[in-house]
Request: fold
Amino acid sequence: MKKFMTKEGKRILAFLCAGLMVASLAGCGKNKTQTDSAQKEFYYVPTYKDFKADAEYFSAILQNGDKLLMVGNKWDQAVETSSNALFQYDFSTEELQERYLDLPENASVRQSFLNEEGNLIAVVDWYEGSQTTADSDEAVGLVDTEEAVLPDEPIDPGFTAESEAEYTYHTDLYVLSTEDGSVISTENFDVLDENSYIQYMLTDGEGLIYLITDQSIEVVSTQGEKKTSIDLGGNWVNSAFTAGGKIYVCMWGGEGFEIYPVDSTIKTIGSPIKSDSLNKNYGLNFYENDGTQVLVSDGTTVYSYDPAEDKSEALFDWLDADINSDDVQDIGKLSDGRYYVLTRAYSGDSSYDASYSLVLLTKTPASEVQQKEEITVGALYINQDLRKNIIDFNKSSNKYHITVKSYNTDDYTTGVTQFNNDIVSGTGPDIIDITNIDYNQYASMGVFEDLYPYMDKAGINRSDYLENVFKAYEIDGKLYAVIPQFVISTTMVKASKLSSPGWTLSEMLDFVEQNNVENIFDYGSRSMVFYYCIYNNMNEFMNWETGESSFDGEDFARVLEFAAKFPDDEDINYSTEGDGISAKIRGDKVLLMQTSFDSVQEYQMYNGLFGEKVNFIGYPDVDRKGNMITSTSGSVAINASSKHKDGAWAFVSTLLSDEYQEGLVAENSMSWGFPVKRSALEKQFAKDMEKEYTTDANGNQVEQMKTSWGYDDYEIDIYAATQEEIDAVRTIIESAEKASTSVNEELINIITEETGAFFKGQKSAKETADIIQNRVQIYMKEHS
Reply:
């Protein structure tokens, strides 16, 4: 398996991890008393059905009345061949049947739908011919299944570049019986380029077929006759559906996600529906329903929607039904009013390590549902890990039930302002996701509950955990947040250039002044300099406990002079031509590289990329401890004004449990962060050190690589880590004592606004620093 990060992707990731902007903390809103969630009249109660389909994945999921049909791909490891099957689940009998599809060997079903007679219409790719054996390692057909992501066309493990010329490829349109899988008819269907990717295949009320690709919508007849081609203008179709016999596509437009009706008589996409009934900031997913309405999910809520009338009705929230919206594959309504949900949960490190589940949702009066104490979690955005944790907690708790209050609205600023007002006024949620807020500012205002007393009462031994991670979220000896998993945000430099374990801002500026400024960062900009020197280090310039700031000092003026040597973001040429990052670093054309690393394997990769020993020196810090803790799965705090603190702690404590922490250990060492519990971290290290073996031609056991990594122009095979590498990573982790938190947007705006005149030569660095100092002091007084 190969984990690969592009130059731009990793640079942006490191940049974001180093410090995210958040909107300003608004003044307190009207005083009001915190109240419990309003009692709902109905709930949709989930029932989990036995559903074990022997398939790698489903290429199509289709509802036919009270039956669910799924076209599945099956892989037979013994004979190394794939086949296609039709699975049918009958909701009335609760039986799952499997039928073989009579398709050619090595066939792949690209897309399919049901016609009015209930038969399966499928676009099928297949090939015929003989396969030769090439004299290369590739001939053995090593397929990287761990990195594969649900391909449209399964890869034949015997296929190699050397044998490609031996095959003849076909694309046909099949009509297949859903009763026995037999072929009713077949037509040649060479209407698309063989490299075209069919996202969706739909049919309208006139029987025409719409093939929605990554470039266009191809309208064809059931005989394969091409009627017209509709240009998408380079836009990516997020979702597509049929309602009332008409075709609609959902794409990103000028007002967010917009819904476009498709007219087969024109060759360009028309105007979007002027919709006010759906939240267009979310990635909307549509699921076909009977008649003129469809079901639509925005990731939080499921609605019924009539596109012709632009009317929507909220049905239920995913979290209330204990379903993770990230896992949803299909939704549908049955004749008795129940809704089915087909999910696919990934339980391991592989894309194929997943299982399908079938859930039935029954609308039930609240009086018939077990009542639990409601706990609220509030966030600007709930990430997928936190969402999963909430669902797992709700399923296991007989006493508490967590609901989510999301502040992610159409108007981002309005949502943030409401979030701030609720928290500061004491009316906020019981649990607060602090991932995207200015943690230090809120903590200094007494908004959060100290968690150490709760840990002590629960018998949680602090020494069993990485106490430096706790320290990163401490203020005045009190712990205000729990972080279950983290990455290390840092700066790397050749150890031959700098050997000290850390540096101050002054020492960092001394270093850059001794070198050519063009060689400091890759694609350096003024905003990058401010993030690197200031925003990641705001505690050195602002003390929320004392209300004092120090932007009028010598170091800040030096940062201004340093930033002036770089271009604005819009003036940077992100050309892919020329040397890659590894070549630049080895040739001393780039001296400092920012990143965040989440595993021992990534540490190994960076040492290879540099070509020599790397010093993870970190960001400038007054204590020379610039490696920073960055949460990967959502840091949470308890609202000091909550009326449900015991319930809030019941959830927060699960993130520190042995079960949860050990669940973060990656079986194949491909982790997405380090667990905070020492025992779990050591288990991860042990996994990293496990050697993997293969048998050579002579029957001897030889060590083989565990995986491979790539970054821009560099690739490396990763073998089992040495004890020296494990010790080095452990040292870096334990050296990190500060949290990488978000920076208030208004503070960033102050600096951005006032430095403009300096960069234009209209003010000196000293004058600019004095003005910023004055404005920040005023801001701190207003928001303390």
In short: The mean pLDDT is 84. The longest strand covers residues 354-365. The radius of gyration is 29 Å.
